[in-house]
Every structure is written in structure tokens, then in C-alpha cells.
């Protein structure tokens, strides 16, 4: 716990006699947190799921014995700094935590946050203890940058702005690229740009914002392809009254139609396919900023004006309901656009005198001023569940106030990508504390996610978090001053805090536990108002709910952000590379909370392990089924259940919530309209949906899913053709066009000319010699192969001849080479072993070698990278660029890349001879650390603790991880890879 003393600090920033008095709640004076845990040494070896090659390897790393293999893998590969294999490389969690915490403590001392040296030490120990025990985590940029020679970028979320000038538009491209290069995400509103229906001063017609989106999309796609930290993440917003709103809404749904047409014509339009790059607008999330006026017109069925950007005159009046239908149809077809509710966002705005809130970060949780940033931190809620299944509110309060203090200190020393972002962030000091593991907490305490009890506890905890954060912010204002923009926004900020407190009073509790936590929250809001009236607040905002992708895995969380559990059964990784199905650990905890005896629990757990759900589980009462409802599966939570949970916690957040409402493939356009309307009526700030199987560019998981998607498209087509009320000039999306027509396509053989270029390669694999001859079309492209092994007339020679003929005919009928490569690489049989090819040092079979060689000769680098195949020269360049010392970093905003994306055979190239040595066999651990002690092995063989799992079931259209190839899982409105920790957005 902490308390404030004094009123201000000297203008120089040096510590005065005033400051925070820190009371220890988790630590003991004179005992360092590191001395209270048992440490063990591990070997971290992470492999590519697709081909078994080593992505990352670091041996002899040190972690507490209670950290899972998965968490230590991710932290080692993502967050440890320094060139691998050198003394500069971090090798212990102690070094990582010290690098960050000691930087915070030093800045706190310098800027007058602590009352004494003893308080600074207490702050250091308390913060260290919470990070060590996975109670919370800062967002990833903190771990990437703080305490390194790189710029001290601590923010994961940025909002930019763009004006109606070419200079501003080109500057948008530049600033966005710098932020992407640093591993963060950005969003902006394009509504200031004139529409294509307005004139330029020269007399010509303006291009409109959608045309400029093309350039930004191409830029993001290029940076995404070359990025080493995570892929580019961006948000594009357009106001609903912009004259180009229909074109904006339809951009991605029209591209989805293009994908279908190209796929049916034989082009490779799968995720990562060679032809998918021709599709536009795929690198951003799109959102429409709707006003209360527009939503009221939708409900009333009246007209709505689209207005010119320069003078505000009405250019066109449309039917609001028709436009809303168009938005829903587009979202049904391709999941974009989402909705941002402008009236609600700005009604809760603490700084309206400094400008309206017009945009968000890529995941929609950070909503504040243009050209600003927000650094995030998230608490692991399961750490506050006591053995008696009650929530430890006192420990939670102590953690929140300490974390808010640390987050505010970071702004004192942080670097930012542009001068304007630097100025506004330092003037308003936006923070974003949030949490993860809500779904696991509710299940472990026997509360259904979609229930009054689940929502009441979630609301009480969220209210307690934000009330404490605002109270701490007010106390900080009394010591180091309110944020610079507070004076001009004082009345609005006080009004918003009063609104939060009033919402707290309106929460309907279900049981004594909810009431107890809510009572603690009421006290915090009372203190926040009293201290804020006296001193103001240090931060313009304090809380939001982020996706917590990578950091959630690092904290061993079962669930991310506000999400429920994904599924009851997951895949557990074991030492040595094996895996096994296990039932989530929260299931036994929930059964104990419900009062089931141990023998009944065992039977239920066994049933769930076999069937994946609880329906008809022996001894489980039907009224308890809802406790075990998950995001997917036989008893999936309904879409409206997700919306209701968001609505329960939204009034207690300064920002918004990163969450996508998943809908089944059978959902209709009307269902999407209902969700988007409910989001406005329930007071959400932002909402996005995703209908399973709506994207062609992502694979269907099973036949049933494909049939559901086809049935849904047919139903929508029928609905679109049915008579309806006349609507405005808005042309609805042609949903009928989405219904796929059965067309039979017959491949045509393209024979090679009589004279064609060819090359012959001699090879040796495991002592077996052979020759590969490949013939090409004159205009490029492999057309035939001949494989010579053994003597003519032998069985082996005959089999290889037949195989080569089959491959050649397939190539001439249009089967892509990469399809063969993906199937035949990693095929294992004798002969296998060392080769005489410097680009492919080790092969698992003749087939493995031949198709790796063909890929190297006939596929471009991008396609080979997706397959995990690279030449010796490419591997050398990758090592040189990825393993450079942080001291060599010169870019102003470059976040050091996590050294996890080594190409497929990088480890073999670096030490192929060593891999072949009997004394040091190459590790094949499927992403799991090897060489653990007996205690760790024993722990690996029991039910997995939180975080030591890979999901066995995922949403149908989850993308593949761009680093290791594993199917990702949702994390808010982004995705996270549980194998390596990579995310598709901010965390």
C-alpha cells in the first residue's frame, strides 16, 4: 500500500522532501524478492511447427521453478536483449526485471516521486515481486526498450491525425511507417480529407480518402513483410456523415468478392498465397464513427445528411437505415467495418477543451486525442483469487496504485516517434491499466461468463481498478503536479469521474462477494473525487482493456483481456516435443467451487477430455453447464453474451475494450445489425464482429464449417432478393453476389516446347548419390523434373521415374510448385542425413532434399520464407541483421526486434556439423524447452498450470502465425500465437 505526503516537487525534477510513502504489502524489508524463490536453469529451444526447424535457441537461461515452459520460452525469445551467444545477452529473468525496474526507480528518484530512499527501495521490491510472480506485466515495448541503448519507447498504442493537404497525407505515410517499424500500432480518422464528390481549389475533383488508403495499405503491407517484431497493425476510421462513407464501407467487402472470383479462376488466394498480395485494403481494421444523430435516425427510419468537409454543407441526404444495412452487410461479408460510437466516446472525454476524440489505436481500446500515445499494463486477475475463492480486494488495490505510479514515471523518461506525439503525451500523460484472465477467474469461482453473477463481479473488479487508479493519479498530482492540460479541462475531468462513481452506484450485485468488492470500489471512487477536487489528476486517462496477447502468455494466463475461455480442452506441450490433450485447470477449480466430490470430479474431467464439452457429463448437474461455457464449442457463448459483458464493464474504463464479438457462420445480416444497434444502446464505445468463415483468404477447418458458410451465403442471397421497404440512394452491398455459383472448372495441360531451358544438379544425401534435372518454360516456371538414382532397370530407378512423371504432369496442369514443396519437405525415411549442398546441409529424406532444392531454384524469397526455406546466403544475412547488438541501433524509433524469426534451417547452417555429431544431437522439442530437471519434468506430466497450453480448438478463420506457422487464437480484436508469443496487434 502507498500513501502520499507533501504537495509538489521542485521544477528541476529533483526529489524534494515531499513524495510518496510506500508501505510494503508483498515484501519484507531487508529481504530481496529474488531470495524468496527457487531458481532453475533451462534450455529454451523453439521450433517451427511446419517443418521442425529451430527458430530460436538459448541454453542455460534462469527462471523461477514455478514459471511454465511456455512463459519462459516466450520471455526468453521475445524480451531478452543482447546478441545471442555473447556475454551481452541476457540469460536470466532477474536481468530482465532489473533492467526495467531499476530504470523506473532511478527516474522516480530523479523526478521526486518518493519521500525517502527507503520508499524508493520499497517501490523497487514491490514492483519486482509482482513481475517475478506474474501478478502483472507492462506492455511489450517496455520489455523491448527500457534500459537498453535503443530509444526508450514505452507505448504500444498511437493515434495519428491527417489534414486535407498533400503534405499532411504524405506525412501520415511516414509517421505510420515509423511506428510500425518500432513494433507498435497506430490509428487515425480520415474524415478531414475532402470527398471524391467535392472540388479542389484548382477546379478538379478531389481523390477522396479511400484512394489515399491504397498507398497507406501498400506501405503497411511492405513493412509487415519485413518486420521482425510483429506485423503492422493499423486502424482507419471515417465519420458516418462523410460523403464517401459508402465507398469506404464497401472497400473490403468488394475486395472479398474479388478474392472469390480470382480463387474460382485458379489463382492462389489462400492466406499467404502468392496472389493474395494483389488484393487491397487488407492491412488495416476499418471502423465507421457513428453519431447519436445517425443512430437515432436508424431507429426512426429517417434521412441523414452527408456533409462536405470544408464548409459542412449537406451534399446528399440518404436513408439512415439503408446505410446502416450496408454497414452490417459489409461486416457480415468480411468482418469490416467495425463501429465506434462517437457520442458515447466524447461524452466520457476528460479533455474536450483540447479537442474531440476522433480515432483509436488498431484494437480500439485506446481512444483519446490525436497525435497521442498510451502505455499499457495488465493485471493477472487469477493471482487475486484466494484459496476460499474470494477476490483479494486489498491486494488488488495495492497492486493497482503501485502500477499506476510506475506507468506515470515511465512517461518522464520515455521517447516517442514524433515531436507532436511527444508534446501531447507529456502534456496529458495517458495511461492504460487493464487486466487479463477474467474468463478463468469467473470459471474458477463457479460463475458463468454470460450471467448476472459473472457480469456483476467483472463490473465490481473493473470499477475497483479504475477508482483506485484515479485516486492514485490524484495523489500523484498532489506531489508532482497535475497533467499540463488539466487546468483547461478541469470541469470536464471532474464530471467524468463523477459519472464513473455514479455508474458504480448503479451496479446490481448478485451475492455477498460482488457486494464486498463493489463496496471497496465505492470507497476508492469517493477518495478519487475528494483528492482530485483538491489537486486535480496526474493523468488524463488511466484505464482500458487491451488484448494482452504476448504478455498474457508471459504471465501464464489462461484467457486474454476480457475474453472467456476459448475451449475446455487444450493441447499440452511436453518436454521432448510431444503433446497431449488436457482439460483446462480452471475446470477442476470450478467443480470444487460447485461442491462436487473428488471422485465425481475425476469422472467429469475424463468425460470432458474425451468429448470436449460438459453435455451429459456423468454426475454434472445441467444447471451448472453454463459455468463451463466457452467462446467456441458445443455450448458457445452467444454473441449477445459477449456484448452484455462489455456493457457491464465499459462505464468503469477511461478508454474502451479490445474485443471482437465472434458470430457463427450461420449468423445473418440482421444479426449483425442487432449487435451493432445493441452496442450503441448499451453504452459501448466501440464494437467489432467476426462471422466464422466469412473470409475466403483464410482456410475452413472442416466440412461442416464450409457447409454452414455456404448455407449462410445462400440464405443472405435469398434475403437480399426478397421485397423490402424502399431505401435511400445508398446502394446496398450485393450480398447475393456472395452466394457461390457451382461452376465446374477443368484444368488445361500446358506442355513445354520442344526446346526448353533446364539444369541438372548432382546431389548426395546420407551417402546416396543422384541427379536432379529440372526443365522450365521459356517464360519462367518449372514444368518437368527427372530424377536419376540407382541403375537403370532397378526397382528404385523405376519408382523414381514414375514419381517424376507424375510430378511433371501435375506441374503442366497448373499445380503450383509450392503445393508440392509444402507436402514433401520434412518427409522422413532413409537415406537421410548430411548432403553435399551448402544451401541444404541436412535432409530428412531424398524427397525432403529434392523439393527444398527445387524451392530454392524456382520460388521467390517471400514464398520460400513462408515455407521455412532459405539459402545459405539468406541465412547469413538474417543472422547478421537480427543478431546485431542493440548498441548498433540508430533509428530514432526502432524497437529492437525479438530474435525469434530465424529462417528454417538457420540453426543447421550455423552448426550443421554439430547437429550431425552423436555427442550433441540437434534438439527437436516442438517449441518446448529441453534439458529440465526432475522437478520440472514431473510438473510437465501433470495437468498444465495456467499458460502451459496450446489451444486444440481455435476460431475457424484464425490466421497462421507469421513467425512459426501455428494457428493463432483471438486476443481482444487481435490474434496471439501461443507457440512463440507473436501478435497481430498491440499488447
UniProtKB/TrEMBL annotation:
Pfam families: Ribonuc_red_2_N, Ribonuc_red_lgC, TSCPD. Keywords: Cobalamin, Cobalt, Disulfide bond, DNA synthesis, Nucleotide-binding, Oxidoreductase. GO terms for biological process: DNA biosynthetic process. Its cofactor is adenosylcob(III)alamin. The keyword Nucleotidyltransferase does not apply. This is Vitamin B12-dependent ribonucleotide reductase. Signal peptide: none annotated. Residues 155-690 form the Ribonucleotide reductase large subunit C-terminal domain. GO terms for molecular function: cobalamin binding; cobalt ion binding; nucleotide binding; ribonucleoside-diphosphate reductase activity, thioredoxin disulfide as acceptor. It comes from Frankia canadensis. Residues 753-857 form the TSCPD domain. Belongs to the ribonucleoside diphosphate reductase class-2 family. Residues 904-927 are annotated as: Disordered.
